[in-house]
Specification:
By secondary structure, the chain is of the alpha/beta class. The protein is built from 16 helices and eight strands. Helices cover about 50% and strands about 15% of the residues.
């Protein structure tokens, strides 16, 4: 089935731009060898924790401070997604991290959108990340930027960062504001935090959860996920690296499947986790007894849970079936 999975059209909903800068392009932009860059940008198979894993973002972010670089990096990423048969991607990043050399957050978003739009074959949108631990001012700016660009290349907002240090309760007013403005949102929760963080994220109004694997620790939270038809954006390899799970074989993805919980497969960070989406599919297929039809359903569920309009979802389903029957 491996070859069929490689050819399968795919939807990726949880992909960080700044964690997915290719080593080849990073070498071109920095002048460093790929060997040197692996040390700076690729996480080991086992990090101490999520915070340790996140240190691998520092160097790529340092390269993402000009319009030219941001556009090149976005264009390179969407081209690599095309190689993995991705037909739609929601790519997320925090514009606040890319203003160190004088760009405004608006210029940052424009530069990234310019890069994405150069590939006409892969449909994509941006999710703008508010950050746990960032200032209220920067997070509010991100929210206003999402409102300005909503349906013009931006489809939602997110809250990312170390949830064990910064609980979601501190950010609830931002999501109240997002709801009032009609801005959809997903929230990182239950990655290195508790099942209760997942519960709070859902009650805050999140229609998807980034990771959410520790929801498995609480039956009431699992019931809430099913009741609300919440899709979990599952990223198995990065979950192993951040010690959210012991190893690949112990990932709860198959348990979620048996419970009827919705999820899709994602890389999280294709460079930091050193994995393509095709490779993630093949690893899942190696460890768990999913059928081909299950992978089809994962992608159809991802389309249904995407932040596209209803008409765009219908068109994407048609595109999916047109490509799967090639």
């Amino acid at each position: 089935m491996d070859n069929d999975l490689k050819k399968m059209p795919k939807v990726e909903l949880h992909l960080h731009l700044d964690g997915s800068l290719s080593l080849d392009l990073a070498s071109e932009l920095s002048g460093l060898s790929k060997e040197e860059l692996v040390e700076k940008m690729v996480a080991p198979d086992k990090c101490q924790n999520l915070s340790d894993y996140l240190t691998k973002f520092d160097f790529p972010i340092s390269l993402m401070q000009t319009k030219k670089n941001l556009s090149m990096i976005a264009y390179d990423l969407v081209n690599r997604l095309e190689e993995d048969e991705v037909i739609y991607a929601e790519i997320r990043f925090a514009p606040m991290f890319h203003t160190k050399e004088g760009l405004t957050m608006e210029e940052v978003v424009e530069a990234v959108l310019n890069g994405l739009r150069q590939n006409k074959r892969v449909q994509s949108n941006l999710i703008l990340c508010m950050m746990r631990g960032a200032s209220l001012e920067d997070n509010q700016k991100t929210l206003l930027l999402a409102e300005e660009y909503l349906n013009r290349g931006v489809c939602a907002v997110d809250l990312a960062g170390a949830e064990d240090k910064y609980p979601i309760d501190d950010y609830l007013p931002l999501f109240d504001e997002a709801r009032k403005k009609g801005i959809p949102f997903t929230i990182h929760a239950g990655e290195n935090g508790s099942a209760d963080e997942v519960r709070r994220a859902i009650l805050a109004g999140a229609s998807r959860i980034g990771h959410g694997i520790h929801a498995l620790d609480d039956e009431k939270v699992l019931s809430l996920i099913k009741e609300k038809n919440i899709l979990l954006e599952i990223c198995p390899t990065s979950n192993v690296q951040t010690n959210a799970v012991l190893d690949y074989a112990h990932h709860p993805i198959f348990k979620f499947y048996q419970m009827g919980i919705l999820f899709n497969l994602n890389t999280d960070n294709s460079c930091v986790s050193h994995i393509s989406l095709n490779e993630e599919y093949l690893k899942v297929n190696h460890y768990f007894p999913f059928l081909y039809e299950d992978y089809v359903k994962m992608n159809l569920d991802a389309i249904a849970a995407s932040f596209l309009s209803l008409d765009d979802k219908k068109n994407l389903v048609k595109n999916f079936y047109d490509n799967i029957h090639k």
